[in-house]
Amino acid sequence: MKFKLVGHNRFVIYLLLSHLTCISITSVPPEVKVSSRQSGSTMKLHCQVYGFYPRDVDVIWKMNRMEISLDEAKHILPNSDGTYQLRVSVEVIPEEEASYSCHVDHSSLGEPLITMLAPAPSCG
């Protein structure tokens, strides 16, 4: 089915499109979930950052407030709603009494968002 835009319809479409281009979302703050998975003597930490806009974001893992080097490249992916997502993972050798935290810095935030990884339950 084809439609032909003539006269008034064409003008209405023009007005709608010209106003839609002026609408923009300034920023949407990220949501963060952290998780871990034990594998033998190592533990993989995952920091999932999602639902943020604009695209630029900085995500790091820290152990006892010291930055941990990343295992893999950061790949920011688009969501269908126009926001973005990212997962940052690191592999560590777990240490007793160590605290792990994911730090997210985004333009929508007044200060970096810090999400602590809950300590694993102790057996005994």
UniProtKB/TrEMBL annotation:
Compartmental location: Membrane
Gene3D superfamilies for the chain: Immunoglobulins (2.60.40.10)
Keyword Nucleotide-binding recorded: no
Record's keyword annotation contains Iron: no
Annotated ranges, domain Ig-like: 30-118
Annotated signal sequence range: 1-27
Protein's GO biological process: immune response
GO CC terms: external side of plasma membrane; extracellular space
Record keywords: Disulfide bond, Glycoprotein, Membrane, Signal
A Pfam short name: C1-set
PROSITE patterns membership: IG_LIKE, IG_MHC
Descriptive protein name: Ig-like domain-containing protein
Organism expressing this protein natively: Leptobrachium leishanense (Leishan spiny toad)
